[in-house]
Amino acid sequence: MADLISGYAVVFNRETTVGDVFREKIAPGAFDKSLRERPDILALWNHNYDRPLGRTSSGSLDLRSDRIGLWFGLNPDETTPDGLTAIGTVRRQDVRGCSFGFTVTRETWDEGDDTQLPLRTVEEAVLWEVTLTPLPAYPETSASLSRASENAAAASRRRAEAAMRLRGIG
After folding, report:
1. Of 128, 130, 122, whose CA–CA distance to 104 is shortest?
2. What is this structure's pTM?
3. Which residues pair with 119 in a beta bridge?
4. pLDDT band at 16 (very low <50, low <70, confident <90, very high)
5. Cα–Cα distance, 52 to 49 (Å, whole number)
6. Cα-flanking dihedrals φ and ψ of residue 85, to 5°?
7. CA 68 vs CA 4, 74, 157: distances in Å
8. Structural domain boundaries of the chain?
9. Distance from CA of residue 147 to its chain's centroid?
10. Residue 43 near residue 74, CB atoms below 8 Å
11. Average of pLDDT values for 137-158?
């Protein structure tokens, strides 16, 4: 059995502040078209393209959009330093969140009032990568470690969904 890192790289309809300039949230289904049309999405360590942890085309990364957000299951290579770093830091929960790299293709803006920053809602985007990071821009994201078995991905996804419901998300 191998180690599986899974969780939510994106949680839909949760706001974050981007550079003290605007607020942002990701709409449900924002990555659906990208997931259908782009067969190769990367899993990275802290947005570093020199430190790949997996990819959809090799089968080491699984991505699914559901009612909560963008769920991922990652099987990092335990024979590489970065794979061991990912497993170790997620196991200890030093890293327990995610981020993602994307290009917005459709968005709406709500300028709000003088008391709030403008709000961008990403309605559709091209997903390039998901990343494990100790400082996620969206704190509701998650990453946890389990032992992979025949049904581990489905069980891990159910656990992540239950944890999100307990936190009032979804």
Report:
1. 122
2. 0.84
3. 23, 110
4. very high
5. 6
6. -65, -45
7. 20, 18, 11
8. 3-163
9. 20
10. yes
11. 74
In angstroms, the CA 119 to CA 117 distance is: 6
Give the residue carrying structure tokens 């990701």: 26
Contact 161, 8 (CB under 8 A): no
C-alpha to C-alpha distance for 170 and 163, rounded to whole angstroms: 10
* Confidence at residue 150, expressed as pLDDT on a 0 to 100 scale: 45
- pLDDT the model gives residue 75: 96
Exposed/middle/buried for residue 6 (C-beta within 10 Å: 0-12, 13-18, 19+): buried
| pLDDT given for residue 164 in this prediction | 66
- How far, in Å, CA of 139 to CA of 160, rounded? 14
Fold held by 3-163: Serine Protease, Human Cytomegalovirus Protease; Chain A (3.20.16)
Find the mean pLDDT for residues 6-16.
Answer: 97
pLDDT of 41: 97
Radius of gyration of the chain (CA): 16
Q: How confident is the model at residue 157 (pLDDT cuts 50, 70, 90)?
A: low
Average pLDDT, the chain: 90
DSSP E strand boundaries for 115-159? 119-133, 144-147
DSSP H stretches of helix in 51-116: 81-91
